[in-house]
# Entry
Amino acid sequence: MAERTLAVVSAGLSQPSSTRLLADKLATATVVRLRDEGVTTRVVTFELRDYAQDVMNNMLTGFASPRLETMIEAVTTADGLIAVTPIFTTSFSGLFKSFFDVIDNRSLTDQPVLIGATAGTARHSLALDYALRPMFTYLHAVVVPTSVFAASEDWGSGAGGLDSRLATLPARIERAAGELAALVASSDRSTRVPDPFELPAGFNPSGFGPSGGPPARQ
Amino acid sequence: MQFGIFTVGDSTTDPTTGDTPTENARIKAMLTIAQKVEEVGLDVFATGEHHNPPFVPSSPTTMLGYIAAKTQRIILSTATTLITTSDPVKIAEDFAMLQHVADGRVDLTLGRGNTGPVYPWFGKDIREGIPLALENYALLRRLWREDFVDWEGQFRTPLQGFQSTPRPLDGVPPFVWHGSIRSPEIAEQAAYYGDGFFSNHIFWPASHTAKMVQFYRQRFEHYGHGTAAQAIVGLGGQVFMSKNSQDAKRRFRPYFDNAPVYGNGPSMEDFTSQTPLTVGSPQEVIDRTLGFRDYVGDYQRQLWLMDHAGLPLKTVLEQLDLLGEEVVPVLRKEFAKNRPADVPEAPTHESLVIAAAGATRVTDATTAVIHEDLDTAAAIAPAGAGKTGA
# Structure
């Protein structure tokens, strides 16, 4: 049976948190879809609150503490990422953005990402499309078309279903999970061995054209 | 093994008194510190280069020229010289001039600089930082090694039959180190030419420095300059000492907590465990520094950052006394133990002159075409080995 890893990053602050609840529901639905396709999924979930001081220290010093480095490694090498934030003052939370600010801006290239957000009312739902989606596009991640927003009232909605009169939260979760699962299933990201010292193609240390052999003799 | 000081040259408010040194006071303090480096028996004084306040050292060779006149023995160096935004012709001339003034007691560390606006201020584009470092250095090497240079590149006005002046002292260019924290391209460049690699280790975890140095060593061997163990490695470090460890922590903490680079971030305890910063007794500094060898191998140069974060001159001079009296003599002895005989010392003007003379004799005898890096390769090779280099 094929194996994949799925990273979940939740920026919820309270305990329990509806942001974490949404993240878990998205992860569970994705794991089920992958299982249907014969894929075993290892899920690694991180609450950014647990790393808040490390994230800010990284921003101030320029390097990650060992525990944050381990966590960043787990997130960036996963076959897929579910990233969920509460909406604060019309956008992602500062902690959520700070985390993605401190990771290497090349480290999410090609990674399948499902974005989600929570807020008190549905009036903020476009934040997914004007804040989260462009950020992940900038990072060259592959963001699935369906993003999932959960307002407080959504937690009281019915099961819905794809043929329901209204696409309720569970239906949106199902659709998004299906889109992410398809990309995760075909990912080989978690088996790649990145080379941090890989030089750009054609790199020539003398500065001129593609590299030849040893330094020019004269 | 060489031991010394590198200074950023920041004019920072002392958080314990609120005093900020004037530019003049800071510059004079740096000159005093450099002379103290010689007095306490260290080997190297290196200054940074900056073009924005609160940093004062914009003209390193002016400063080093003065220090040359006031000292007899120490090597005058930089950390770093901006190879990206300075004209390589001016670097070639400034440092050749300094060689003559200082009777050869000169080397330099090249860096790209980490202040974004400096690039546009000097008409360059930061996105071309690596290509600038590569091409400018390729020209700098030729200016020092060829009497007349025809040149055309991407970044500066072409040259036809240009001769930089003065020519390097004794026909031997100063030894060059390349400094980089995170760019394998620069480690590769250093390895390609058989130059030194300086890892400013001080704001990064040891594991990262270990990997960069390992990469440079492997590439040095790949390019045929010697074995990986013979590559020329320098490290930064950062210490604050008192006789008693608790006193050191108490005295340094306000400077740590307010330091421009890491202040208001991690605790001093976390930072010292995650980076080479050592705050403690001279014995703790000795133990920590000896530990560097465990992850970078036997190396050639250890520089410490001592005069930063608003530390007053008097304190810095006391720190240098402790380094010179209690730390470095022990380190010299301990680093010499178990050091393989074929691991070279850092090249000096004298060793490069001897190597160049050897290379000339080989040329006369065989009329072989000599590898342009023979001077460096031979200078760092163990005695009796690699006489023909290329």
In short: The two ends of chain A are 59 Å apart (CA to CA). Helices of chain A lie at 18-36, 52-61, 66-76, 94-102, 127-138, 169-185. The domain at 2-191 of chain A is CATH 3.40.50.360 (Rossmann fold). The longest helix of chain A spans residues 18-36.
